[in-house]
Amino acid sequence: MRYYTQKYLLKLGAILIGGLGCTFCVQAQITRLPHADTTSGNYFGTSVALDGPRAIVGASGEASCGVGAGAAYIFELVDSTGYWHEKARLIPSDCEEGLAFGRKVALDGNVALVAGSQEYFANERSNAVYVFERDDTGNWIQTGRLTSTGHNREGPAGAAVAVHNDRILITTAGDATLGNQLHGTAYIYEKVDSSWSLKHKITGSDDVSAGIFGGNAVLHSNRLAVAGSAYFNRRAGSVYLFEYDRSGAWSEVARLGGIEGFFISLDLHGDELLVGQTGAGQNESGQATLFARDSTGAWVKTAILEPPSPYRKGAFGTEVALHGDRALVVGYDEQLRLNFNVDRVVYIFARSNGQWHYQGIIDIGEAAFGNSIDLYNQTALVGASGSTDAGAVYVIQIR
């Protein structure tokens, strides 16, 4: 079922979001971010991050300084009209063909991260994460180039990036190839005297049978979570949770097992963690699980989010986003009676009186829609990037 067509999304307007089974419905305003490059396969929107009235978008396929070099863009909401304006185009100092700059991005205030990262598995290339900071004149300047310090067998750097309160998290994805599985590592950088310094290296407590550490990660305040997917072994993976203690060290406080998904999506906000599990549920329809830290410090399961109509291998939980009492989950909303699905949608959930309710979906009828998402209060940022069209990114104000 489809509730919107492309024409609605090309202009700002009030759109009713609803769907079969929604407990209550909402309205939203939807607009498309401006982008001049209409080249197919530019992958504009392959990654997105949102922080209040500022957003960053990766375009890892853009031919900035060579084929597949990539770029990233900063947008700001600068007036009361609801329109977002491009404020900066970010290119690394060592830009080169095939860098895939923009594959991952993160944003916090005046600090932006952009990963130039190639394939995650068994790749000997030394990838990097680039730090950009906004100066007093409003210009974005590259101030750092961060890499892993371990052996290349940790996997390429930049599998995940996050930044919060002058603290940067980057991970290496490990090696998931059969017969040669190795953990990745999480690296914590902090700002010291205007420069970024490596402060901590973190690994999970369990072996690779519980999932290969490092494929995805999130950071919020003094907490971080790192996914450990089992990848090709068709068994459940894990999510590791760490907290920064008074001694100045990061301590593992929990390992959440039984996480079913090839790539495990995560979002962390305060005392709550949302985990996407595309392989969970009946017929692997997928689900998103909420965990919360209780008064004793333990992380416990508090809710399971599911689509109103689960579909076999419906990929629900491919991407997740959490902020306060709202959650977004990407999945399919139809079963084609084939071995694959086509159109992806973004499911909206809200919490009322302590209970989570399905509100509706956002659907533009594109397979690439929802390949990246972020959420800040009632504003969602959704990417739609693929190899056959120019990418696009939509800002959605959920009322």
- How many structural domains does the protein architecture include? 1
User: Treating each run of at least 4 consecutive H or I residues as one helix, how many helices?
Assistant: 1
Give the fraction of residues assigned to helices.
under 10%
Number of strands: 29
**Which fold name fills CATH's third level, the topology?**
Methylamine Dehydrogenase, Chain H
Task: Please report the first level of CATH classification, the CATH class.
Answer: Mainly Beta
Unreliable runs, pLDDT <50, ≥5 residues? Answer: 1-16, 19-25
The end-to-end span amounts to: 22 Å
Describe this protein's structure.
The structure is a single chain. The chain has about 400 residues and is an all-beta fold. It has one domain (about 5-399): 7 Propeller (Methylamine Dehydrogenase, Chain H). It has one helix at about 5-10, and strands at about 15, 25-30, 45-50, 55-60, 70-75, 85-90, 100-110, 110-115, 130-135, 140-145, 155-165, 165-170, 185-190, 195-200, 210-220, 225-230, 235-245, 250-260, 265-270, 270-275, 285-295, 300-305, 320-325, 325-330, 345-350, 355-360, 370-375, 380-385, 390-399. A 5-stranded antiparallel beta sheet has the order 1-2-29-28-27, with no helix packed on it. It has a 4-stranded antiparallel beta sheet with strand order 3-4-5-6, with no helix packed on it. The chain has a 4-stranded antiparallel beta sheet with strand order 7-8-9-10, with no helix packed on it. The protein is globular.
